[in-house]
Amino acid sequence: MQQSLFDFIEQYIILTEEEKKCITDLDIFRSVKKGTLLLSEGQCSRSSIFVLKGLIRTFYIVDGEEKTTEFYAEMEGISPPCVLSGLPSELYISCVEDAMISVSDPGMESEVFRKFPRFESLCRILSEQLLSKNQCNFDTYKTSSPEQRYLHLLKNRSDLLNRVPQHQLASYLGIKPQSLSRLRARLVKKKK
Amino acid sequence: MQQSLFDFIEQYIILTEEEKKCITDLDIFRSVKKGTLLLSEGQCSRSSIFVLKGLIRTFYIVDGEEKTTEFYAEMEGISPPCVLSGLPSELYISCVEDAMISVSDPGMESEVFRKFPRFESLCRILSEQLLSKNQCNFDTYKTSSPEQRYLHLLKNRSDLLNRVPQHQLASYLGIKPQSLSRLRARLVKKKK
């Protein structure tokens, strides 16, 4: 399982055997079943999650209703707000598919940065990239209609259409499941 | 002007005289007038902006209409997507008020990181904090109604209500100016 993480890191820096051993020794790899809740509201957690295989989903429960905010697939990671704030989580994280993940915490990261400072440099670069991607996604969401959001998804993350239940997808797009069905029907009609 | 930047950094690390001199020598401080466009669609820019005083705004022009996505006030910074992508910008950045800003680019940053590695550590921490904040803002936007978004703004960034024209504020909340007026009137009525 760790090989996929090494492959991901090696897009940026070639790992030495010593660095690989350090990562392996951290014992951060977990196999989790579909439906598993990795984080729940009220929980205090210091765990950041990186997806090696499978799909996880973040959501909130607002007035008894699940509001899906994001999906994280292969080579995507989430550090929930509670990790930095130290406050009980408002966010839920669950597995949409059976998944293989790595789970780390700030203590572990400090230890690795101390041993291998270039990992901190890598994390700085990855954080800046993620920040930029996140900013773009937020901007796209804000400046688009639901139909444009759906077309954007179709173009950029079409894998989600087959991997995610319709009601979660609708919630992710900020619309009701019935609106998503109508939107799809309208687009099929336009194509003909 | 640089003192405010030093004060901000010194919330995290105490600067040496050598480090302060290095920052001063970078010649990154600019004074800009209200209304100045700091970035326009189509422009290739490598500049990240940090606001020392004043207020700047990011927006897109969609079908001839300005869509405001964010405001950055004192001690907030923006690295527009074009800095990392190298592609022409789709984003505009303009000054809502007369402002004092610092402007840096990746080359400058590398140079500073090389001389003072602990600045890279600081940037990693700041990026992670920003990422978390951005994620929370995105989640709040997605899971809230316009009224909830307005109340959230009132609670967390009430300064914007007096600093920003109404049509920009409405756009930022994802609604029409008339809807913002109605929303406000409704809330005043509720209070009575």
Fold blueprint:
Two copies of one chain form a homodimer.
Chain A: H1 2-9, H2 17-25, E1 29-32, E2 37-39, E3 48-53, E4 56-62, E5 65-72, E6 76-78, H3 81-85, E7 92-95, E8 99-104, H4 106-115, H5 117-143, H6 146-156, H7 159-163, H8 166-172, H9 177-191
Antiparallel strand pairs in A: 1-8, 2-7, 3-6, 3-8, 4-5, 4-7
Helix pairs in contact in A: 4-5, 8-9
Description:
Two copies of one chain form a homodimer. Chain A is of the alpha+beta class. The first copy, chain A, has a domain at 2-118: Jelly Rolls (Sandwich), CATH 2.60.120.10. Chain A has nine helices and eight strands. The first copy, chain A, has helices at 2-9, 17-25, 81-85, 106-115, 117-143, 146-156, 159-163, 166-172, 177-191, and strands at residues 29-32, 37-39, 48-53, 56-62, 65-72, 76-78, 92-95, 99-104. Chain A has a four-stranded antiparallel beta sheet. In chain A, β4 and β5 form a beta hairpin. In chain A, α4 (106-115) packs across α5 (117-143) and α8 packs across α9. The longest helix of chain A is centred in the C-terminal third of the chain and has 27 residues, at 117-143. Chain A is globular, with a radius of gyration of 18 Å. The mean pLDDT of chain A is 95. Chains A and B meet through β4, α3 and α5 of A and β4, α3 and α5 of B.
